[in-house]
């Protein structure tokens, strides 16, 4: 009973949804009711008539292996993110990284079909089935990269150690190679679209509490302008310069078209302080169920934020005192020439004598 209580409510709902939709998908197929799977899975040519599949396709797995992988993703990733963000913000994130990647993947396959020889020759189309939690997995890895980038995960009893910040690039590389070599192109598309959707939302749109603010009244920041969450920092150091050049070009073009609002220097500074505050305190460990945000009292949360704010303020004042510290002056006394000063003197009688 304690194991069930330790799972946050929305994560529990997602786990139940995964089991219910995956079982229903197999039951419909084996029962001959839906042999193509278009009632729960996403088939771009038919999705217009079954629009709910843009949501259900993510949680309708094909076999027991993918069900277990999706369940582990939701269980551990959902517990962590829901406790770090709260159920409301976690729910928004889930809706975005579920619907947008499925829409994007569907659009990609429709365009590919329109440009293919099947459309030109008017041949019977080969239906592509889009389903599974690959986009959700990519989105969770991006969120971990934002929250705990320096956390180290040990595998095989310490034989392999990988930092969380490297997981998104490893995941994308694996799915890209699998798509090219093994033909799992849907996983390739979902991985990239899920990655880009999650990063765009967290980078530019998601609201988050200002951990470095001296105010405990609930001030918020929009997006994450920190340097460590820039697009180039998701990739190995050797290829970061060319990736940064391409990303900056795309970003400047979007700013010119007024699709994106450029970050100011204050935004970048605030984002860097947020990243430092997250690293110092306030977020539970990936594998630790205690110390979650939901389990803390409001007073403890306020005290934690106040302590972080005072520390940041002290650092700013110390840096400002060093920069603006007045330089010591050593005035030289006037040289004595032995002559009488030419300044006028005032005698007792009030007469001025040169």
What can you tell me about this protein's structure?
There is one protein chain. This protein is mostly helical. It is built from 12 helices and 6 strands. It has helices at residues 2-5, 9-30, 53-56, 64-85, 87-114, 117-121, 134-147, 167-181, 185-205, 240-256, 265-280, 298-323, and strands at 152-155, 160-163, 207-209, 220-222, 345-346, 352-353. A two-stranded antiparallel ribbon has the order 1-2. A hairpin with a 4-residue loop joins strand 1 and strand 2 (160-163). The termini are far apart. Mean pLDDT is 80; it is low at 289-302 and 336-354.
Number of strands: 6
Strand/helix succession: HHHHHHHEEHHEEHHHEE
Please tell me the overall pLDDT: 80
Alpha carbon gap, first and last residue: 103 Å
State the helicity in percent bands: 40-55%
Biggest sheet, spatial arrangement of strands: 1-2
Assembly classification = single chain
Major beta sheet, specifics?
2 strands, antiparallel
Low-confidence stretches: 289-302, 336-354
Specify the overall morphology. globular
Question: Rg from C-alpha positions?
Answer: 30 Å
Question: What is the SS-derived class?
Answer: mainly alpha
Q: State the helix count.
A: 12
Kindly estimate the percentage of residues that lie in beta strands according to DSSP: 5-15%
